[in-house]
Amino acid sequence: MVSMKDIAKRCGVSIATVSKALNGQSDIGDAIREKVIQAAKELGYTGNSAARSLKTNRSYLIGILFMDLSNSGFTHEYFASTLTNFRLEAERCGYDIVFLSSNSRMAATSYLQHALFRGVDGVAIICADFFDPTVQELAYSDLPVVTLDHAFNNRTAVMSDNMHGVESLVKYVYGKGHHKIAYIRGNPTAVTESRMMGFYRACEELGIRIPKEYLEECEYHEPISCYKATKRLLELEDRPTCILFSDDYSYIGGMNAIREAGLRVPEDISVAGYDGIHIAGIMNPKLTTWQQNTPELGRIAAAELIAKIENPRTTLPKHIEVNGSLLEGETVREI
Fold first, then answer.
1. Under 8 Å CB-to-CB from 232, ≥6 apart: which residues?
2. CB-count burial class (<10 Å; 0-12, 13-18, 19+) for 69
3. Burial 110-142 (b: 16+ CB within 10 A, else e)
4. Rounded to whole angstroms, how far apart are CA atoms 135 and 74?
5. pLDDT tens-digit profile of 180-195?
6. Which among 78, 234, 249, 309 would be 20 to 30 A from 300, CA to CA?
7. Tell me, what's the pLDDT at 46?
8. What confidence score (pLDDT) does residue 30 get?
9. Residue 288 carries which DSSP code?
């Protein structure tokens, strides 16, 4: 069996340094930590998780609540990337993850009961109906909790800069000469509320009047719903010169509606998306969009939750906003 001594010998460091690296302690350099972790993987080191759990009174398990609201599974690039980077940070710190369910066969009848049954040290609520009483029960329990893109009172939340993102998109297309800007928002959520606030704030600041007909709604990550909303906008007598879409994936439906109407992007109508997923960069023309920083969202959420687990008395709840960036693309024409 591979021991810490074997890893120490491979890396040319002390056994104490190996122990610190594998247990996620912060008083060693990142380069040494990565070197030790890589050597441990190469040598097949598994450690003694049972002994570690007894010593620290922790399970080193983190619960993930991911309710698939759009029925897209892990094909939704935003959540796939966020969850992957959450997992990588958790594993780097010596934790494993387990998904929570309210209909488990293991006698759990709520998310909190499932979390307690699995003995998790803390929970990350990544995607959920945050107004569901069973979700709120979990959020306000005694377990350390971090949420993504929703803020509960006295709980840590990691937020994408949704308001600033849409605000920046409006200002960008306005700078290209567009004053008739339509917005297809997503279905009602805290994220949509924040984005709508950014839209209204930018329009007010720029002196743009938005007719109510320019505001449509579709389901997130749902091209068919977006197709219908886009079609309604294109049928207006005074149609917009630019349409902002709820997300890049839904824009596929909007693109089909535009082509069906015999229009070209950006020659006849300009468009912009949201998320900055891979497909946006390979479309023709390349989609102008706001890219959310999903690697940082996942990493920070894991780091903050683990800090609360390991230092509960000194880690205060906080709201952290993660900045995104504009990807100019080729779909907004100057007029």
1. 216
2. middle
3. ebbbbbbebebbbbbbbbbebeeebbbebbeee
4. 21
5. 999 999 999 989 999 9
6. 249
7. 65
8. 83
9. P
Stated pTM of the model: 0.79
**Closest by CA position to 36, among listed 47, 50, 48, 51:** 47
Q: Which residue blocks in 187-323 are alpha helix, DSSP H?
A: 190-206, 223-234, 251-260, 278-282, 294-310
Q: ∠ at Cα 229 (228, 235), nearest 5°?
A: 90
Amino acid, single-letter form, for residue 56: T
Q: Provide the pLDDT for residue 54.
A: 46
Please say whether the beta carbons of 91 and 24 come within 8 A: no
DSSP structural state of residue 193? H
What's the token pair of residue 14?
């002390």
Sheet bearing 145-148, strands edge to edge: 96-99, 61-66, 122-127, 145-148, 156-160, 319-322
Q: Smallest Cα–Cα separation from 67: which of 103, 91, 106?
A: 103
Residue type, position 124, single letter:
A
- What pLDDT score does 51 carry? 46
User: In the structure encoding, which two tokens stand for residue 164, read together?
Assistant: 């600033």
Cis peptide before 295 (omega within 30 of 0): no
Ranges of residues in the chain with a pLDDT under 50 are 50-51, 53-54, 104-105, 107
Per residue, the 3-state secondary structure of 57-78, as one string, reads CCCCEEEEEECCCCCCHHHCHH
DSSP E strand stretches across the chain = 61-66, 96-99, 122-127, 145-148, 156-160, 181-185, 215-217, 242-244, 270-272, 289-291, 319-322, 325-327
131: CB partners within 8 A, 6+ apart: none
